Every structure is written in C-alpha cells, then in structure tokens.
Amino acid sequence: MKKHLTLDNSKLLVLNNSMQALDALDLQSQAKNLRWVVSICKELRTDLLRKGIDRREKDKSFVLKLSYHKAEALLAYLTGFEIYFPDDFGSYEANAILQMKNELHKQLL
Fold this sequence. Notes:
The chain has helices at residues 9-18, 35-54, 68-80, 91-108, and strands at 2-7, 62-67. The protein is mainly alpha-helical. The model has no long low-confidence stretch (mean pLDDT 87).
C-alpha cells in the first residue's frame, strides 16, 4: 500500500536539509525502538537526494510514492527528531515540515 507525499523543489530541499542530521546520528546510540526510524530514514534520505538531483531543473510539484513503512518512519522522524533540525530553519521551513507531517498523518490513520 503506497502513501503519497506531494512535494515541490522547495519542500524537497527542506526535507533533505532536515534529514541532514541523519548523517551524524549513530545507529547504536539510539534507543532500540527508534533504530528502525533512523535506518529507514537513512535509506529514504539517499532516495530523496537522488530525487533532488534529478529534479533540480524542474519547478513543478510532484508526488513522492512511499511504502507504508517508509511513510510511517518519515512521520516518526519528523515528529520525534525535531531537536536535530538545523537552527537556521525559518517560518517557511517550519510550515513545510508541518504540512508534510499533516499529510502523512492523514494517510496513516
């Protein structure tokens, strides 16, 4: 069962920037119940970086298709790991993250 997340280049950039903290996180230092979030989101980050490179010249919205477990892990990451997000996030970035969380939450109910 695929879940859909509507993004444009700006939101994709915000999502990639928010997931940048995954590069520094050590999987073993996380609680056992959060390791699945970190490992799935690291895999998803690789996919999102490739998507960002492919779409850098295009400025249209697109739908990112996620499997259920990836959508659930992304929602868990966006809600539970906000402390790791960059300090320079402004109101646009905070609103974009909130929109993504809401869209995922509605689909995962």
